[in-house]
Structures are given as structure tokens and as C-alpha cells.
Amino acid sequence: MNGKNRRLSRLFVGDQKRCLLSPLDHAGWLGPVKGLDRPRQIVQQVFAGGANAVLAAPGFIRETASDIPSNAAIVLRVSLTAGLSAKGTQETPIATLDTALRMDADAVAVSVFFGRDGDIEIYAWLAALVDQCQAYDMPVVAEMMPPEDRFFDAAAIAHASRIGMEIGADVIKTNYCGDPETFRQVVDSVPLPIIIAGGPKGNGADSTASMVAGAISAGARGVAIGRRVWQSADPTEVTRQIAKVLWA
């Protein structure tokens, strides 16, 4: 098993090879809002609920390292949104492949928000990072988001995801369109593991579990649900409900 496959085997687990990735990377954009204001506490809660991986920036990983299980996958966010900047429409590179190797990360993650200023520049940086990572068997998770006016449009989701595939990413994180039959067409057109984002805060564990069930039935390989988890009254329970769907 080469280095990339070994790292991916920590990200996608169980007989179904699925992933419950907990994205705790929003504070650069939103600030230390409720749910992210106690880093160690939220890390403990999501892993207690059954998450098998965490997505976070270098400083967050460093400060919560003792709370991350040794068998959990670490997806290192190497770009971050500067929420206080008027120019913060895209993420800005904050770390490198070398950072990820030194921190023993299992993958790196970059987001591209198409339709916003700077999308070509961050896309070009992501492409260069993909090329660099290939030599070290470091998986790249590309969060490919369509323009805001087509944020949940299946054709736009498929197009954004396919761009990620074409530049050589290993895993795609993107939106779920809400309909399993339609999303299956996205999965079929992008033959990579697809992890769905959670989007805005939902209406409780039941609605989140239902969304996850629909996406998984359409062929998604996992989820990266943030606000629906850490803004909830009980992050551990919401995570547990998601885990039940993934590894039923």
C-alpha cells in the first residue's frame, strides 16, 4: 500500500469506506462563534459522536492535538478565509505541503468559490498544490463550490466538481443538490470520492440525517457537516445520528 492509499484508508473507513469528516475550519471566516469558541470541547464532542476525521487549520490542529484520536484522519486546511477583510471573498494560502508533512496530515484541503473575485487565482494555486502533492503521495481534498446563484444546482455542482477532478484532486467536497436521483448524475460524472458539505444550520438531527441518507444513497462517500453540528444544542448526538446513517 503506497503512502496515498494508506492516508486515504484513514479518511474512508469501515466496510463501506465512508467518511464522517468534521469541518472545524470556519472561525477564520466567522470568528470564534458559538460552537467554535471552545476548540477542545467541540473536538471532544464530534469524536465522541463517531467522527473519524477532522478538517481544520494548522493552529487549530496544534492546539487540539491531544484531543484527536490517534486513529483519526487529519485533513489540514492550507487556505483560510480572512473574514475581517473586504477582500476576503476567497481563501488565502496559509500553509504548504511541507506544513502538512511535518504535521503528519492525511490530506490537505483548499476551497474554490467560483463566481467570486479571485476564483482564478486560488484555482491556479490549488492546481499547483495538486502537482506538488503528487510527488509525496499527499491526497488533496478540493472543495469546489459553484457560483452563489447556482449553489445547489446539480449541473453547476457537477461542473465545479469536474474541474476539481480534471486538475487532479483526489477527493471532492461540494454541495448536495437535495435530490438523490439528480445527485447520482453528479457522482457518475465525477468518478472520485465525493464528500458533501452541510450548508447552513438545519432544523435538527432528523433533517440532517435525512439529507445525509439521500446523498449516500446517491453514491456520496461521506459528509463534512459543520454548522448543523457545532451550532446544534448537542453536537455529539447530531454527529452520532450522522454516523448511524453512514455505517448502518
Chart the SSEs and their pairings.
Layout: H1 3-11, E1 19-23, H2 27-30, H3 39-49, E2 53-56, H4 58-64, E3 73-77, E4 79-81, E5 91-93, H5 97-102, E6 107-113, H6 119-134, E7 140-145, H7 154-166, E8 171-174, H8 180-189, E9 194-197, H9 205-217, E10 222-224, H10 227-230, H11 235-246
Parallel strand pairs: 1-2, 1-10, 2-3, 3-6, 6-7, 7-8, 8-9, 9-10
Antiparallel strand pairs: 4-5
Helix pairs in contact: 3-11, 7-8, 9-11
Number of strands: 10
Give the CATH class: Alpha Beta
Radius of gyration: 16 Å
Basic shape: globular
The CATH superfamily name is Aldolase class I
How big a fraction of the residues is strand?
A: 15-25%
Query: Could you spell the SSE succession in H and E letters?
Result: HEHHEHEEEHEHEHEHEHEHH
